[in-house]
Specification:
Helix content is 58%, strand content 3%. The protein is mostly helical.
């Protein structure tokens, strides 16, 4: 299996993660709180789902004004990304609830926005979280020839413009989920024998994909085409706009946390070994941003605390802010980095600079 291709071998920093887990566990025990969702998380879930479904119902029923319909589609785009960032993400990490069936149901919320929970868990949980920023293992930094997200990838002539066109490609992310990407991933993961990590056969997965994709496009696109007040071309454009908003929002949160000036982009040696331990690699290739922006953090599912998420993906994001001081202080005690941008703009700016550097320099060393 592909997971055996690369391994972390340096145990010198393992004491850090052992001590950190001890301190974080103590925080929950001493405060007598659950590491799963709380009432605020449940209320947020209701809000995000409503932000997606209520505008859609209005589009299908009472709205006739074109401008109001366009506005509703835009709100659906933010609802889509809200469901992805705040609900299905935690659930697919088994962090939403201690009840596995609740996590399973909430994780399948990704079906509502055109994605696949199985592919998500393989790409995100299994590959990205295990091998963050490791070329040929972390698919979040692998876009073929379109983008260069790591100095370990080949530099192409067109990459010198990637800091410009990247934002358009980011906006296309979820429409690709809804149409072609999940089928391509299915074939790739089946070939790499990764479907067994999710306890599903190829036939079962393909059947699920065909059913859920057909239902998604039928309800979200075909139904408005049939009974909505907009002309067909207007509905298609609004559908694409909704996805562009969601895709740009999702990529805008995830990419500036890893493709950053400080990331080290570790590479395995000829034996498939990376001379780091797993936790150290997370700290060296992950950054937080806007830690004081409470409303922003609420909307993006606490993923501005990306370090805490990567070290403790099984903890619901509503707790990240509280445990961030523990993580930061422990990292410094063990002489490990803890990167954090003051604002979201700073993170985006750093990401754009890194895209430009990766697009023009063969080695593209980290910007410090």
């Amino acid at each position: 299996m592909i997971l055996n291709k690369v391994k972390f071998t340096n145990p010198n920093k393992e004491a850090f993660y052992k001590e950190l887990r001890k301190r974080v566990n103590a925080y929950f025990k001493e405060n007598e709180i659950s590491r799963y969702a709380n009432v605020n998380m449940v209320l947020k879930s209701i809000f995000m789902i409503s932000l997606y479904l209520v505008p859609f119902i209005l589009i299908l029923t009472v709205l006739e004004s074109s401008w109001l319909i366009v506005l509703m589609w835009a709100l659906m785009g933010f609802g889509m990304s809200g469901i992805g960032l705040s609900i299905m993400h935690d659930a697919n990490h088994s962090a939403y609830s201690k009840n596995k069936y609740v996590n399973k149901i909430m994780g399948k919320m990704i079906w509502l926005v055109g994605g696949s929970d199985v592919n998500w868990r393989i790409q995100h949980n299994v590959l990205h979280h295990t091998f963050t920023n490791v070329d040929e293992m972390d698919e979040d930094i692998d876009t073929g020839v379109l983008m260069r997200f790591s100095p370990n990838q080949a530099l192409k002539k067109g990459h010198k413009f990637q800091h410009v066109y990247a934002w358009f490609l980011y906006g296309m992310m979820t429409i690709m989920w809804a149409t072609s990407k999940d089928y391509v991933q299915f074939l790739r993961y089946k070939k790499k024998d990764l479907l067994k990590t999710q306890g599903i056969t190829g036939a079962q997965f393909l059947t699920t994909l065909l059913i859920t994709k057909t239902m998604y496009l039928g309800f979200t696109l075909v139904l408005p085409l049939i009974i909505g007040a907009m002309p067909w071309w207007g509905t298609v454009l609004c559908f694409l706009m909704m996805h562009f908003i969601a895709g740009l929002t999702l990529a805008g949160i995830f990419q500036p946390a890893h493709v950053t000036p400080n990331s080290t982009f570790e590479a395995a040696n000829s034996n498939g070994e990376i001379e780091l331990d797993w936790a150290a690699n997370q700290l060296m290739n992950t950054a937080n941003f806007a830690p004081k922006a409470r409303l922003f953090s609420w909307y993006v599912g606490g993923l501005n605390y990306q370090i805490e998420h990567h070290l403790f993906p099984n903890i619901c994001h509503v707790h990240y802010r509280k445990i961030s001081n523990i993580v930061r202080n422990t990292a410094f005690e063990y002489d490990l980095p803890y990167y954090s941008y003051k604002t979201f703009y700073d993170a985006l700016s750093g990401h754009a600079k890194m895209l430009r550097k990766l697009g023009t320099e063969v080695d593209a060393p980290a910007i410090h």
